[in-house]
Design a protein that fits this description.
Mean pLDDT: 72
Order of helices and strands: HHHEEHEEEHE
Low-confidence stretches: 19-30, 68-81
CATH topology of the largest domain: Barwin-like endoglucanases
Number of strands: 6
Strand order of the largest sheet: 1-5-2-4-3-6
Strand content: 15-25%
Radius of gyration: 20 Å
Structural class: alpha/beta
Helix content: 40-55%
CATH class of the largest domain: Mainly Beta
Largest sheet: 6 strands, mixed, barrel
Length: 180
């Protein structure tokens, strides 16, 4: 496999990452670059070379997905800065399948406190990005009810789609927050 093929793989990975990170200018550039140049070059390759490119491309995707899933070391202090992500809720640890509205959250281990957090309300405000999505915060805050436990989340809150969207661009996926 030549250096040109490796560059094609890296360019495609960069395109995928910038598009998934919703960086509009860069995503547009890479999308047009891939469409106008890279795909034409890929069509010139043999079947074996195309297979190897796809194989490395998918391995790269898996690598970057795992890389972005690594969370920071849990904060054991008692301050209220944390990070949050967006999840879909079905049954909850506090209320089973009884609906509690849409402005709800799942508490990480530090907040959960062996179930003492069930039913408590927390006001959450986005403080900044956790990944390369520029300016994810809307400036709003949201009051959510703790309805579930998120084991292993440490000092985080997982917000419902509706509550996350109120404080941040949903494309961001994970953001830094303050809560009280």
């Amino acid at each position: 496999m030549g250096i040109q093929n490796i560059l094609i793989i890296l360019s495609m990975a960069a395109c995928l990452m910038s598009t998934s990170m919703a960086t509009p200018g860069i995503a547009t550039f890479y999308t047009s670059y891939v469409r106008e140049y890279l795909f034409k070059e890929i069509l010139k390759l043999s079947f074996d070379e195309k297979f190897m490119i796809l194989l490395f491309f998918y391995i790269g995707i898996l690598f970057f997905m795992n890389l972005f899933c690594i969370l920071k070391k849990p904060d054991t202090s008692q301050h209220s800065q944390s990070l949050t992500s967006m999840v879909l809720f079905t049954a909850s640890a506090c209320y089973g399948s009884t609906q509690q509205g849409v402005m709800i959250a799942s508490a990480g281990d530090a907040i959960w406190n062996n179930g003492a957090a069930c039913g408590k309300f927390v006001t959450v405000r986005c403080t900044g990005p956790r990944n390369p999505v520029p300016h994810p915060c809307t400036g709003a805050s949201v009051r959510v009810k703790i309805v579930d436990h998120c084991p292993g989340c440490q000092s985080t809150l997982d917000l419902s789609k509706e509550s996350f969207t109120k404080i941040a661009n949903p494309v961001a996926g994970i953001i830094n927050i303050d809560y009280y």
